[in-house]
């Protein structure tokens, strides 16, 4: 989001201030990144020890689950400042990109003000809770306030990182403007009361929308909107708001997210992911549109390892985009192919989206993962047909002999083993979701060591995974107060009325729910949309006779399609950022694949109504 300033001087105090700010900012990031990586390593060791004691020695480690939750909360607090300027900052910069310099500067001031105010809410709100909360954790014997203490420095470091980055980028005027605006709102807002006649949740949504449009990080737009809603009659005071947010992060199931991210990162770093590419190429490389089909099959196979569509989009762009262009595809069509195939990652297990959904609705993770396999195969089929129809390759590979296919399959076996650990282990109740994720991370760490992966690259994988997990954890936590206000204001009743607008039969209710979710997916990140709309829509469709698991899968498919649609389209923006192809061109080029995915969605809805056991 940084804007280069033309008034940067090469000498004098201004240049010195910029260099100093950049050095301090990088130093903070280094310290926080190291701390995050170490916490993730301790988490992995703790859960692994717990699993070993439970299944090998039929005993347990007292307080291990509670300690793991506290460590995960600490990792989120440590990683929150790192996420501000990373690929997972979750900023919608579509409007920002098309504005003239003066408009971009105004948006920057607004976005930085929102982020700094959110940091102050996190820091001082947590400090307020520390002074109010009592009691100790029964499992750990530690004061409960310690869990909130992690976020006091975290919130203040968020503010510091915004200011340091502004100074480092030479935006001194914007630093002053955003600082003054932050101070004005921080001191004035608590004394205001504005009666608009609207429910506080609607006000929260409108303020959050403004934050999203000016390219503020999504978690901070949510949190600040909930805080400002206090002036409009919200019943969530600042301490309760922060308590709600941190409570949303304090779930044992959420430990699976950093472990799955770590497994996917280590699989790529160790070179095992490249073996999946060779296996996919041997299978389908000779088909019409062979390289596009290879990209699709690789994405399907890699989905069983990473669980993150963003990770898959980044991997696919660097691996396939240049070769697709060399084979005759336009840069925008090549990028659209990669973005479309990346949709599979949060559908085919292990799926972080399903973990978030399960945490929000208490649905069975194992059943959701099995349903995701079926949905992923249907989506793969429809995308394969679309790739065949739109093929523009100048040449295709020769059909691989059987011996080559077998050799490629054997080489890729370690990656297949990861999928078996996750799906079978969870589905048949051998291990919990978090335990399966830890075993998967340990398995890929073993693969990395077997492949002689250096200590530096292993540390980098832990650091990256911790930062990405912290960004997702922040989103889950900060969406909590918004979801609470939606419940208090009975927005669920209005959503139910909208979902039954076409009738109360299962087909009509499911159609209305899909339309609602497709619209929501235009504007919200999938994680936020799941947290806000999953609990609202699930009771409605269940009452209409739709199997909850089937709808959970359809909900995720719906929202993943939103990763390809403007204006948010996170997968398109990831591909655009790496390939340097304008996002608008990628959106246009991806229309055939969007149609294919909508066709897959329609078939899944039909199956959910007529043959729900398929899920």
From TrEMBL:
Coiled coil: none annotated. Residues 44-168 form the Tripartite ATP-independent periplasmic transporters DctQ component domain. Part of the tripartite ATP-independent periplasmic (TRAP) transport system. Pfam families: DctM, DctQ. The keyword 4Fe-4S does not apply. The chain crosses the membrane at residues 35-57, 69-88, 109-133, 145-164, 171-194, 206-232, 252-276, 296-315, 336-359, 365-387, 408-430, 436-454, 466-488, 508-538, 550-578, 590-611. GO terms for cellular component: plasma membrane. One of its GO terms (molecular function) is transmembrane transporter activity. Keywords: Cell inner membrane, Cell membrane, Membrane, Transmembrane, Transmembrane helix, Transport. This is TRAP transporter large permease subunit.
